[in-house]
Design goal:
alpha+beta, 34% helix, 455 residues, single chain, Vanillyl-alcohol Oxidase, Chain A, domain 3, 16 helices, Uridine Diphospho-n-acetylenolpyruvylglucosamine Reductase, domain 3, 5-stranded antiparallel sheet, 7-stranded antiparallel sheet, Uridine Diphospho-n-acetylenolpyruvylglucosamine Reductase, domain 2, FAD-bd_PCMH-like_sf, 3 domains
């Protein structure tokens, strides 16, 4: 750094005009995600346009020992993109190029700022689709999805983001650019570095491009099944029965009564007001007949179960599922969790969530990617509080403990961020934690990449 020059000015001198923000008001929008986590005050925000901007920023940051917090659209639910004091927030939202779509190889090469749904729409113009579809798919970015290994509604059949990622371009701490994997379906040369970076929450490197797998789009609209249940446990049992029977729905979601009521108060949906829970399933292929899904739901005690091929009805039902989080937000601040258990243990897990809600007097709305055993309990608390009060934390602790007791995990797709770090030791023993720390030190020896997050 030039002697006497302010750090932000030295960074500005390295990058093209307009890339660096230092005005506090302008930076504020880049400091937080969708959680209640309180952000720190950044030194600057870099709005990267290409890989060279990212590499120059990382080289400067390592030399000056300045922390860097990578950021996409800020839709995260674990505090992973929140600024820390004195950091540079590295925004990748302007890196929006779809560099290539190959209909012959069924791959796309995309930059991290591409909106998830935009990639899917671009692929469908070629008769293909991008499978991962988190509920925030219309606003979340590919880079954020890669950072957290996001899933979504279709992951029950097509897998999470890691399953659709073939290769990466990554900028390491210090500014070195590497490329992992490739565009082949198979490839086992060396360690699986692609898999290592996916889900690492920006703590090991900054992803600046990805080669992702595309799938043939279904030839016809999917059949959609709606089933209502007299209890949340029965709905969970239906989901477990569907997967246990070897059926492969393309979507299998569960929504509880509290969530349905919150959505109905807001949007006036036309679903059974007496239902304790609903299961919404879709099938887009002959390997999973819709009538088989209906039979499994009826066998688990559904009060009503029916299939439809009407696209408008299907869109309306999926919109109900996607409205769960914004509907909960209207009730207050939310601690949004995403524990995951073996699919056969889903009925027990929903029972444990209900007991935690009753025991601690906490309002919990539960939705689930039921086909994956991935539950999203949303703990609602007073909007005027800075963070969750003790009863909410106690209920969350009980839910986390239940998930681990049942052979599950603290997070299925949202990531650890800052919000789940207090519970890491409950899932990972000291030896596993040590391996994580050694990997972190090897790739980021000065600890500049997203410090305090994930591990």
């Amino acid at each position: 750094m030039t002697a006497g020059r302010e750090p932000a000015e030295a960074l500005r001198a390295l990058l093209p005009a307009g890339r660096v923000l230092t005005d506090p008001d302008a930076m504020d929008a880049y400091t937080r995600d969708q959680t209640y986590a309180v952000p720190g005050a950044p030194l600057a925000v870099v709005r990267a346009r290409d890989t060279s901007d990212v590499a120059a920023t990382m080289a400067w940051a390592q030399e000056e020992r300045v922390p860097v917090v990578p950021r996409g659209a800020g839709t995260g639910l674990a505090g992973g993109a929140t600024a820390v004091d004195g950091c540079v927030v590295l925004s990748l939202a302007a890196m929006t190029a779809i560099r290539e779509i190959s209909p012959r190889d069924h791959v796309a090469v995309v930059e991290p700022g591409v909106i998830t749904a935009d990639l899917d729409r671009a692929a469908r113009a070629h008769g293909l689709m991008y499978a991962p579809d988190p509920s925030s798919h219309e606003i979340s970015t590919i880079g954020g999805n890669l950072a957290t290994n996001a899933g979504g509604l279709r992951c029950v059949k097509y897998g999470v983001t890691r399953h659709s990622t073939l290769g990466l371009e990554v900028v390491l701490a210090g500014g070195t650019v590497i490329r992992t994997g490739g565009r082949t379906v198979k490839g086992v040369t060396g360690y699986d570095l692609t898999g290592l970076f996916v889900g690492s929450e920006g703590t090991l490197g900054v992803i600046t491009a990805a080669t992702v797998r595309l799938f043939p789009a279904p030839a016809r609209p999917p059949a959609t099944v709606l089933a209502t249940f007299p209890s949340l446990t029965a709905a969970g049992a239906a989901a477990a029965a569907i997967m246990g029977a070897g059926l492969r729905p393309s979507l299998l979601e569960l929504v509880d009564r509290a969530t349905l009521r919150a959505i109905d108060e807001w949007r006036r949906i036309d679903l059974d007001p007496g239902a304790a829970a609903v299961v919404i399933a879709q099938t887009d292929g002959p390997e999973c007949p819709a009538d088989a899904l209906v039979r499994e739901c009826e066998g688990a005690g559904a009060a009503f179960a029916a299939a439809s091929c009407d696209e408008a009805e299907a869109d309306a039902l999926l919109e109900v599922r996607r409205l769960a989080y914004p509907a909960a937000e209207r009730l207050g601040k939310c601690l949004v969790e995403d524990v995951c258990v073996p699919r056969s243990r889903l009925p027990e897990m929903v029972e444990r969530i209900e007991r935690a809600s009753e025991r601690h007097g906490v309002r919990i709305l539960t939705v689930a990617h039921a086909g994956d055993g991935n539950l999203h309990p949303l703990f609602v608390f007073d909007r005027g509080l800075p963070g969750p009060p003790p009863p909410v934390l106690a209920a969350a602790d009980e839910v986390f403990s239940a998930a681990i007791d049942l052979g599950g995990t603290l997070t299925g797709e949202h990531g650890v961020g800052v919000l789940k770090r207090p519970w890491l030791d409950a899932e990972m023993g000291p030896d596993v934690r040590d391996v994580h720390r050694r990997i972190k030190r090897a790739l980021d020896p000065d600890g500049v990449l997203n410090p305090g997050k994930a591990i």
